Every structure is written in C-alpha cells, then in structure tokens.
Amino acid sequence: MSDSKPLRRAARQTGWARWLPGIDSIRGYEIAWLHHDVLAGLVLTAVLVPVGIAYAVASGVPAICGLYATIFGLLAYALFGPSRVLVLGPDSSHIALILGVVLPLSAGDPQRAMTLAALMAVVSGCVCVLAGLARLGFITELLSKPIRYGYMNGIALTVLVSQLPALFGFSVEGRGLLSASRAFVEAIVAGRTNWVALALGAGTLATIWLLKRSKQLPGVLIAVAGATVIVAAFDLAARFGVSVLGALPQGLPALVFPWIDSGDVVPVLLGGLAIALVSFADTSVLSRTYAARKGAFVDANQEMVGLGAANVAAGLFQGMPVSASASRTPVAEAAGARTQLAGVVGALTVTALLMFAPNLLQNLPKAALAAVVIASALALIEIADLRRIYRIQRWEFWLSIGCLAGVAVLGPIQGIALAVVIAVIEFLWDGWRPHSAVLGRVDDLKGYHDITRYPQARTIPGLVLFRWDAPLFFANAELFRDRVLDAVAASPTPVRWLVVGAEPMTSVDVTAADTLDELDRELDAAGIDLCFAEMKDPVKDKLKRFGLFSRLGEERFFPTMGQAVSSYLKAHSVEWVDWEDRR
C-alpha cells in the first residue's frame, strides 16, 4: 500500500481532468495493457449479451433495451467514471423497480414500456449527476447494513417470484409479490407447466451454479448457448411450444428523448429516484472494494457523476437504467482488464452483434433467461450476516426483516421509501433517547464512571457529575433537562454544583442552547451552579454565538472532569479523600 497516497492525489484532479477521468487516463496508458484490455473486453461480451437481455425481459421491456443500455452505459462510464475496472449494465436490483412502474403503465405496449424505462434511466442519471456535483456522495451511507440487507432480500424475493412462471414455461397476470405468488400457484395447479421449457430452464440454472466459481469457463454463456442450440436443433419452439426470444432489431438506436404522458410523470420520477439511490449504493460499495484492492482512491462524488452520465446516455439511446455489476466486474478483472478500455471493447463487440448478426439469439428460450435472472436474484440474498446480526443486535435483525416485508407487501418503490424512513428514524432514535449517566469515583480505577455499572462507586457530597452521550439538539433537549433534574433529585446530599461531562456532546442547536439557559436559571434559583467539563471547542464556539458562554462565564467550563472536581473541592469545604491520595 506504499503508493496509496500518490494514487489518492491523482484521483483528486482539477479542471477537465477531474470531470473526464477516462480521457485523463489515456495520458498514462501503457501499450503493454492493450492486449489485456482487448482480451478482457471480448471475454466480457460473453456475459454482457445474455445478462443484458435477461434483465431487460425480466423488467418488462423489450430485450434490445438491455443491449442498448449496456453499449451506451459502458461508453459513457468509460469517459466519466473514476474506476478503472468497474463494469456497468442492467442490474438485477433494478428489475422489481422497473417492473413496478412499467407493468401497470405500459398496458402491454412494448414501445411504451421502452419509453418509460428509458425516462427512468434519464431521471436516475440526472439525480446522480446533480448529487455528485453537489458533493452528496455520502448520502447512501445513511442506510445501515441491516436496512440494506432487508431491502435487497425483499428485491431478490420479488424478482425470484416474478421469474418462476417464465422458468416453468407460462406467463401469469399479477402485480406484487403476493399477487404473483398466488397466480403462479394457481397456474401450476391448473397444469400449465411446459415441462420441456422447465427442463431447459432448470438445466441452465444448474449449469450457471456449477460453473459459478470457475474463472476460466463463462458459466452464463455456456448455459445460455447450450439451451439455444438445443432449441434450434430439435425445433422445440414449434414442436413443444417453448417460448423463445426471437430476432433482435438490427443496427443502433437513434438519440431520442423519451417523452411520456403527464399522468405517468409521478411514478416515473419516484421510480427514477429509487433507482438512483439503489444504483449508487451498489456502485459505491463495489467501486471502493476494487479500488482498495489496488491501493487506489475513488472519489464518491465523481463516481456518482459517472454513474449518472451512464444512465443518461442509456436512457437517451432507448436503453434502461444501469448500475455497477457485481457479476460482470469480476469477469473483467479475472480476464485481465487494466482500464475502462475493456468495457469499451465489450460495448463495441455488442454493437457488432447488433449490426451484423441480430438473428443469432432468436432461438434463445425465455426459460433460460429466467434462469439467468433467478441465479442473480439468489446471489443477492444475504443470510449469513443476518444470522450474525441476530446474535449480536436482535432489534436490528427485526428491522431488516421489517424492510424485507415492506418491499414484499408494499412493492419495491414503496419499500425503498420505507427503508429511508426507517433509516432516519433509526438515526434519530439514537440521538432522541441517548444514554446518560451519573458518575462516581471507583477505587483503583482511573477516571469517573457510571454509578449504575459500578455500584461501589463513591459520589462527592454536593457534587453531581452528569454525562450526556449524544449531541444536544431540539429532539432531546427536554429529555436532557429532565434527566439532569432527576439526577439532582436523586443525590443523597444537597447539591451545590452540577458538572456536565460534555465530551460526547458534539453539537448544540438553538433549541438546546435555550434549554440550557432555562436549566441554568432553574438550577441557580435552587442554589446550584451549572458547569461543563471536556466540552469541545466547536461546541463552545456555538455557545459563544448563542450568547450562553458569556452569560455562564468562562470559569464554569473546565478542560477535564478532574479539574472540575478539584475546583469544586477548593470552593467548598467537603470531607472527601480520593483513593489516589490514600496511596
């Protein structure tokens, strides 16, 4: 890691080099990397095509949307993205979000579905770009790990259920997890299963899982190609009614802004916002992971801009939303990719397929595509770490389950809104009802400690040492006042000083300052001095701006708790012998 600092400095370029890291990287490109990038791009294509098609079909849009998004998302990210190895494309975490908007609004019209998905990509891209320019790259950190697990597990379950009918060779009408599950069971009971399609899908799924850990064999390509060859060789579409993809449109799309009806604006905007949040959460984690392996630094704000540019480009060229891929990025890395040129080669190869061989995949069975999506959805499910969370913090485990249930019952867009609300409540709860303690002196132990945890602790007559373990703000100011007064009332001797151990108090707002002022007047009327120890200078500066510091007086602020105790003992005749003085 000795070169991490130079890499970190390089990642923080200024001017055009900062906003176009792809072009800037050309200046340092080494010709020895070229054959690695070209080979990695060709290998990557073997995954880009089937996965892009599978995710598009699963999202309720024409298959070609997945390839358009792949091509233009990769090209745009190569210009604007800061990561050298990250691969972008349609993602399984978007399926339920896109389907939740497209399915009810498109009314079965493929062109309208394409337009809706494209505008969702543009919306999510604009949100990401604006957030990156505003340096809001930290916002995804507001979702805790249990909440992210719950949301992604809910998405995975929703996607899994939505793909089961295609795996079994039929289609059903049903929106949402519960409705789709009921429709699927009813179809199975009615005997609608196409056993040939199911065999193809199951075989595809088994092949993907068997080859999942192989770095030499592209499991998805082998599985999908094998199923396609079998369908074509035995004419299964005509003989047994196996549903197939059909021919893809030839050539590239035109640059078109996806206009929609005014009645569709709100759901598309909400869907785009949800996709922006999910996309950046996934992309930032993946980007940091691969950067850390190389000892490099990736600017989260530029990552947001790169992701946004990729989505805008995908949407304007009739594609669908894209995100960093946890399945395709390892393929590029394992194949030896050195830079984003590998993604560019992959995009150009997919372009060549559309230009010169659009009929190559016409016999691809939809059951095999469903198997690709199901394999990806299963990979999203997190169980092991949730078990750990259950053991160490059970309420956070149930928080995660609650998010899962929200996605399953309410839907993916409502589910992510619920996840954000829960995250805010979780954050506020810790600050709203924080821990506080009355402190005492424990023999043979330095410092002052919570008397409820150390019942043998001795308190100094007439002195209450009170610690508040949180920022002091409008939501907890009254609770702070009540607990201080409770501590005074519980003192076994008449109180003369109350010293607040303020080291954990990292902030004070106007409401809290006014509460402190009222508390001081209330204590003063009872003959008690309100003092502070270990308060940080930035917090003192706020009290100075509020006028409270000058009213209380500098003499009431002590750098350490020990100095506050010493000053109290000097000011009052108290019978007190510290254990350190007895040694």
As residue ranges, the low-confidence spans are 1-12
The amount of helix comes to: 55-70%
Number of domains: 2
Distance between the termini: 49 Å
Strand content: 5-15%
Structural class: mainly alpha
Q: Summarize model confidence as the mean pLDDT.
A: 88
Major sheet details: 6 strands, mixed
Helical region count? 26
Number of strands: 8
* Rg calc: 30 Å
Mass-distribution shape: elongated
Strand order of the largest sheet: 4-3-5-6-7-8
Supply the key terms.
two-stranded antiparallel ribbon; Transcription Regulator spoIIAA; mainly alpha; 583 residues; 62% helix; elongated
Short description:
The protein is built from 26 helices and 8 strands. It has 583 residues and is mainly alpha-helical.
Q: In words, what does this structure look like?
A:
There is one protein chain. The chain is mostly helical and 583 residues long. It has two domains: 31-142 and 192-380, no CATH class; 436-582, Transcription Regulator spoIIAA. The protein has helices at residues 4-10, 16-19, 21-26, 34-58, 63-80, 92-106, 110-133, 145-167, 176-189, 195-210, 219-234, 236-240, 265-293, 300-316, 328-334, 341-356, 366-380, 384-392, 394-410, 412-432, 477-490, 510-525, 537-546, 548-552, 561-571, 579-582; strands at 88-89, 323-324, 436-441, 448-450, 463-468, 497-501, 529-533, 557-558. The protein has a six-stranded mixed β-sheet with strand order 4-3-5-6-7-8. Helix 21 (477-490) links the parallel strand 5 (463-468) and strand 6. It is elongated, with a radius of gyration of 30 Å. 48% of the residues are buried. Mean pLDDT is 88; it is low at 1-12.
